[in-house]
Structures are given as structure tokens and as C-alpha cells.
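User: Earlier you gave me the apo prediction for this protein. Now I'd like the version with zinc ion bound, so I can compare the two side by side. Same sequence as before, with the ligand SMILES added.
Assistant: Got it. Here's the input I'm using:
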Amino acid sequence: MSQVNTVLGPVDTTELGFTLSHEHITLGAAGAAATYPGFQDRQHIADSATAALTEAYEGGVRTIIDVTTFDLGRDVSMMVEVSQRTGVHVIPCTGNHLAVPRIFWGAPVERVAELFIKEIEEGIEDSEVKAGIIKVASDRGGVTPNEEIVLRAAARASNATGTRISTHTWSPDRVGDQQVRILKEEGVDLNRVYVGHSNDDTDVGYLTGLLEEGVWLGLDRYPGGRTSETPTWDVRTAVVKQLIDAGWAHRLMLSHDHSTPAVQPSEELRRERGEFNPDGYLFITRNVLPRLLELGATDADVQAIMVDNPRRFFED
Ligand SMILES: [Zn+2]
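And here is the structure of the complex with zinc ion:
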């Protein structure tokens, strides 16, 4: 029996159920709560996130992988509170997003890896909450030298502990290919790697190339169409169906990259930015899965993508 760390302690993978593979309870900035207290209404955010995840639970969601890192303002005690109040398993992460802390610039990879290993084996900050996954990130233009330090540190922490890696990419620039090359250099088992944000483009050749390397694929931006340059949700869903037809239903996961805003922009502004998502963590359940079935996917495909694959990802 395999287990994975959640904010409320280790959970058997068989308990995970319907899982969203890349979400956030909320997003902030490292140190903001201590430096600018009151700028964000922390309890209001916790209450809003609780309402959103209670609705998600009622809609069948049982687990979210919350890839909110230190530099994204990870608030472990809020994650614990929201998980307790909603019953949703929340798998927290170590690692780093795009704002690589200046203290890591040029740092020895091993020293950064030790920080990640500490968060996996002992706990995050002074809490008992242990990280269940390692997040890394690169965006437009590819892996920068400082992001490479984080990526290699993540690889070493994964090799030392068996913890899975989740990546943020910019798929139009095929950033996943670079990440995979570096992870391979570090000897990472690619069955432990999830290449995320792989649905901001429709290049199925790039995606199947990654799958053939042995990674899991996260089609985890929905509804999408955040900017006019990225595909709308129905185009993204057609790509999922193409991958299913190509025989990859056993290696795909879906998610939204949703978060409860720390400071709520107006509905008008969110519509303008293409961020308006009234279904929140249930957009996939209410829109994408019915569309996949309409396109000819089977119930078994949906079961694989939403339940079995996230479970198997965490199993040895
Ligand atoms: Zn994200």
C-alpha cells in the first residue's frame, strides 16, 4: 500500500478518489502576510476557499494537489484549516515557482535540495505538515540558469525521497522537453514526473513526444483562453480526446489551476482577462467531462484520467 503526504498527514493512495492534479487554495507572495498584515483579509480568503471546496466536494472532488510554493505565498495553516473544514484531501508541495529567491541564485544544488528534503521528511516551516510533491517552474523562453538550480535540486530531492515532481511549463515553447532533458541528466525516474500546463497549445506531436519519454501529462489549465493566444476550453478538450484516441488515457490528468483570489477583481475585469470561471473547481466536472463523453470518450477513460492516474502517479 502506498501513501502520500497531505496537509492532514499521510493518506493511502486508494483514498484519494477524484483528484484535481494542479490547483491552489489561494496565491500570494512570500512574506506578504508578515510584512503587510491586513492587505489581504486572510479569514475572508479561508472562508471563500472553504465555500469553493465544499461545493467541489459536493460535486465529487476528493483531492487537490496544491502546488503553491514558498514564493507563491504558501500558507500551510490555511491549507490545514480548509482541508479540515471541507473534507478535501490537500497534497502540499515543496520546491519553487517562477520567483526564484535571490538566496538560491548561484547556490550549490545540493544545499537547495536539502531544503526540499527537510520539507518532505520533517515538515514545512515549523509545522508537522510534510510536502507530498515537489514543484518546479519554467516559462516562456525556457529554463533559466537559476530555475535550473531549482530543477536539479528537485531532481535530487526526488531521487533521495521518491517524492514526485510537478512542473510548470509554457507549452507553446515546448519547455517540457528541456525540463525532461535536465531531469534525465539527474537520473530521475520519469514515471515520477508530471509535466504540467501542457494544454496552452495544441501541438500533439510535442505532447506525445513527452509521453513517450515516460512522464505523466497535466492538461491542467481550464477553462483557459486566459489570453487570446491560448486555446479556449473546447479546443483544449478536443486535444484531450486526440490523446485518448492515440492510446494515452492511462497517462493524462486534468485540472484547472484555479485559486481563490486574495483580492477579488471585479467580474467585469475577470471576464476581460478571460479569468472568469463561475464553476471554479467544478468546471471540468460540469463542462469538460460531459464534452469528452460527447466526443466519444468512455466512462473508463474518465475514470482513468480523474481517479486512477493520480492514484497510480503516487504508487511505486
Ligand atoms: Zn498553478
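For your comparison, keep in mind: Residues 3-313 form a domain with the TIM Barrel fold (CATH 3.20.20.140).
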